[in-house]
Write a structure and sequence with these properties.
Order of helices and strands: EHEEEEHEEHEE
Distance between the termini: 27 Å
Strand content: 35-45%
Number of helices: 3
Structural class: alpha+beta
């Protein structure tokens, strides 16, 4: 961010608190050597790990397991010209431990498109960044009010 650009940098705890308020985000990964973005529902584990629940046979699982990915979620208010955006970057791994899988069946995210064989994917929060835009400000912090 740049000084006086109207944005406020969010610390890690603020980012995780805001992420916990929204049900949908976007996972950014590589598909056929090109960037791909897919909206997904998610939840946060107690340690801030992003959790996805999807079909074991999904293309997404094959594309992200073992890869570093980005996960972005936001909340915008067009009327107030304000909002926030948080990005979590880290390694995505499929949960293979049976006890952990059973715990997540009870407490993890619910799939919006259930399938008979589902897996959980964890995105380790290695880098967590976020910013908030305060409404009514230009790129240089000037008030837009008439």
């Amino acid at each position: 961010m740049y000084a006086n650009d109207g944005f406020r940098e969010l610390d890690r705890q603020e980012c995780l608190r805001l992420l916990a308020k929204v049900p949908v985000g976007r996972i950014v990964h590589t598909r056929q050597a090109l960037p791909a973005v897919l909206p997904v529902n998610f939840s946060l584990d107690a340690d801030g790990t992003v959790l996805l629940r999807t079909s074991a046979a999904s293309e997404l699982v094959r594309a992200i397991h073992g890869a570093v990915v980005a996960f972005e979620a936001d909340q915008l208010d067009p009327d107030r010209q304000s909002g926030w955006s948080v990005v979590v970057t880290g390694a995505a791994t499929v949960v293979t431990d049976a006890a952990e899988h059973e715990r997540l069946v009870r407490s993890g995210p619910r799939s919006w498109a259930p399938s008979p064989h589902e897996v959980f994917v964890r995105i380790a929060p290695e880098l967590v960044t976020g910013r908030e835009l305060v409404g009514g400000r230009t790129l240089y912090g000037l008030d837009l009010a008439p």
